[in-house]
Structures are given as C-alpha cells and as structure tokens.
Records
---
Amino acid sequence: MFIKNLKGFKYPDMEIVRWFFKNKLDTLKNEKVLEFASHNGNNLSLFANYDYECLGVELSKEHYENAKYNFDGILKYKKFKFFNENMLDFAKNYKNLNAKVFLIPNVINFITKNELKTLLLNARKNHLYVYGGGGFFFFLFKGKKY
C-alpha cells in the first residue's frame, strides 16, 4: 500500500482513532460499520484494517469514486460497499444492515435539527445499526463527540 497514491484524505480523523481504541473496537471480530458522509473512506480504512465489513454513504460523486478507488485499487480491501446517495434518503430507504458501529462524523453540522432527528429515527426503525445490543455510535458535532 502506498499512502501517497490514495485519493483524498490519507488517514482517519484523530478523534475516530482515539474512540476506536478506547472502546476496544480493535478486539471485535467479523463486525460491520456504517458511516454516513464517508468521504473517500479515510475513516472506514481503520475499520477495514481490523476486518470489518465497511459500508459508506457519500453524497459527493467525486468522494464516492475516490473511496471505491482507494479501497479496491490501492488498499485492496474486500469487504466494502460505498453508496453515492444522500444520507437522509439512505436512512429512509435501506433496511436491515444491522451495523455494530454507526459513524456520523463531521457532517451533522450541515443539516437541520429536524433532519438529524428524522435521520436517526429512520436509521433505528430500519435497523441500519444494532439497537439496544451493544452497538457503538460516534457523532462529531461542532467539535464535540456525542
């Protein structure tokens, strides 16, 4: 792997890295992670290194294409799928993904409070993440983790 060949960001957000190891997510086996606003897959690459199935939802066509290029062509990961969709529509239309880890970093600053509420309600209702069974969530809002 050559980091210089990656398109877009070269490494995961530092807050994600700290949170990942603090919660011992490196010890989980055969799990699934879903990230909304996944950009070029930079955050998901950390999870892929620990054999997670990685699902990313990205609105920007360029970032979506970069993510596919990085995961398939450079990093050679096998268990991934990226979706070029609006995360609000995705949460409403997809069902039963049951991701153990659900990430929404750095993007909820750009949607309204009502959109966030609807997104989270749809994600829960449609079983996009494991609810009530030890799932892990990471939200970054205005520089604070939630």
Note: The two ends are 33 Å apart (CA to CA).
---
Amino acid sequence: MNKSIIAIATSCLLTLSSAALADVSSTINLTSDYTFNGVSQTGNDPALQASLDYAADSGFYVGTWASNVDFGSGEDTNIEWDTYVGQYFQLNEKIGLDAGIAYYTYHGDSASDTYNYPEAYAKFGYSSAMGNSELNFWYSWDYFGLDVNHYIAMVAHTVEVAPGHSVKVSFDRSTSADENKWFWGEVGNDAYNHYRVEYMTSWNDFDFDLALEDTNMNINSADTRVVLSVSHTFSL
C-alpha cells in the first residue's frame, strides 16, 4: 500500500455519474479533543474535522477525512489528511463485515510526510435485540513510517437506552511488534489498553457525542478525559 490510494480515491470521486451523486455526503465535526485510541492528537486541544464520502448501494465506499493536529515537541505538523476505500458486506440478517484500507498523511512540516502510513482493517458487526456488538481489527506494516508492524483490536457494544439515545462501551488494545522502533509511553511498553464510554444522540440534524475515556498509560496526552463532539452531515 502506498500513496496511490489517494489517486484511486480521487479518481473514483471525480468519475461518479450524476445518478450516483445522491450517495455523496460530507460531515463537519467539532470536537473538544481529537483522540486516537485514547491518545490526544491535538495536545489536549479542540479540533475541526471534515470528511467527503461516496457510498454505493453495493456496499462499496470511498472517502477522505482531515483534521488539525498538534504533536508538540517543537515540530510543525498541523494537518492529518486520510483517504480510505472499502466494501461493506451484509453476511446475514444479523452479521455485517466492513473491510478496507486507509492511508494516513501528515502535513505542515518539512518532515511531516515521513509519518505517512497505510492501514488495513476488518470490522465485524452483530445486531440483536440487546443492541449492536462489534469486533474490529486494524493492521499497519509501516506504522508512522517506521517499518514496524502495529495491531489494534477492539470490542464494543452499543445499546439504545431510549428512543434516539444510545450508549456505547468499548475496549481496545494497541500493540507494536517491535518496541525498539515504536513504544508507548515509556521504553519497554509495546502495548497499551484504551477504555471508552460514550453517550450519543441527535437534535435538529446535529449529532452529539459525549465520551469518557482513559488508557493505562501514565502520560498527559492519554490520561482520563471527557470529550464532547458535535457534527452535522450534508447530503451532496
């Protein structure tokens, strides 16, 4: 996987027929903190994010997403811009599979592009009268451009507590296959755990997400925090 994914995604978007344009949407999101698996990507500060997506009736989709970032340490990387392409499969009445590949790019500093990396994912969903359960996996073979394998596994469950009001509980674990190239928090930590509980609702076409999350790392960017996000999706 390389930067050609961006060209493929852009080509798909530009060659859509007018009949398919009804399946194009854009989402604007304002969040009090951009956290990625419990780790702040904005120095514990707010973020403005936007996406552009195309979804076909067949389950195929392609899109792009961007956010401001701040990694501190005196460097000037300030934008993350991702592209993804995938396919959703409804395996039966209760089980769905979402599989695809994403490419993360970074901008703002002369060395920002050295962080770019690809990631493949597979997400299984199970729907029942008790709510929606998820079992999700992500894998990168060049995490943050360091030629290191990186894995994320997540389990989650969402339940509607009242009409239009849902609560989601999730647990995920991030693991580096080579702690000499990438470690978490302190030297020798090749993995960490992330816990998140979130409340989700909508009002006047705006989606609200209020989350409490924490990790088992003892660093300022991954400690206990409350994150509030407000988003709106436009059909184009």
Note: Helices lie at 4-14.
